[in-house]
Amino acid sequence: MTEEDKIGTLTEEALKRKERIAALKRKNEEICDKTEPVRKLPTPKFRSYRPQDDSLKEKILEDAKPGDVEAEIEDQLKAGATKAVIEELDLHNLAPRKPDWDLKRDVDKKLEKLEKRTQKAIAELIRDRLKMGQEDLASVVNVGTKSFENKN
After folding, report:
1. pLDDT at site 128
2. What is the span of the domain harbouring residue 110?
3. Are the beta carbons of 54 and 63 closer than 8 angstroms?
4. pLDDT for 120
5. What is the pLDDT of residue 117?
6. Nearest to 125 by CA among 150, 145, 152
7. What is the number of domains present in the chain?
8. So what's the pLDDT on residue 2?
9. Sign of the CA dihedral with 28 first, then 31, 35, and 38 last
């Protein structure tokens, strides 16, 4: 089959398809004309949001009335034009942070956990030494705290 034959059959098939679609549209229009009247769009319903209960009617704000808009705008512009003078400048808030402040912040949480674990481990070591009966309580506590300080 040559390319011209392929193109010819494709165009014929496309024309047949178009004819079938047009026939279906005509058939559909005929059916719609006979059975269904023209549909109207629904009309919107405007609702009043004013309360019907007497106790709620008292709390309703009055409708806005037009006022002197230009005077209001001028007042706001004047208020915005005045510059506020800062009497005292806190340099601690303006000082830049160290480059690793965020890393320290994230690591602090983990260090707190490790600190608690370290304290528990020291307490366990003290208990173990007391059970062995090696030394009295004060010397065992002093040895535990000295070893903790040496690690830091």
Report:
1. 82
2. 97-151
3. no
4. 92
5. 92
6. 145
7. 2
8. 66
9. positive
pLDDT at 16: 94
Distance of CA 141 to the CA centre of its chain: 51
**What pLDDT does residue 102 have?**
79
Residue among 136, 143, 139 nearest 122 (CA): 143
Q: How far is the C-alpha of 124 from the C-alpha of 131, rounded, in Å?
A: 10
Instruction: Give the tokens for residue 34.
Output: 């006979």
Quote the distance between the C-alpha of residue 15 and its chain's center.
54
Please report the DSSP string for 58-124 in residue order. TTPPPPP----HHHHHHHHHHHHHSPPPPS---HHHHSPPPTTHHHHHHHHHHHHHHHHHHHHHHHH
Which CA distances in Å does 115 have to 25, 104, 106, 127? 80, 15, 15, 18
Cβ proximity of 126 and 144 under 8 Å: yes
In a domain, residue 58? The reply is: no
pLDDT < 50 regions, the chain:
none
pLDDT recorded at residue 151 = 61
CA gap 103, 66 in Å, rounded: 57
Kindly state whether residue 118 falls inside one of the protein's structural domains.
yes
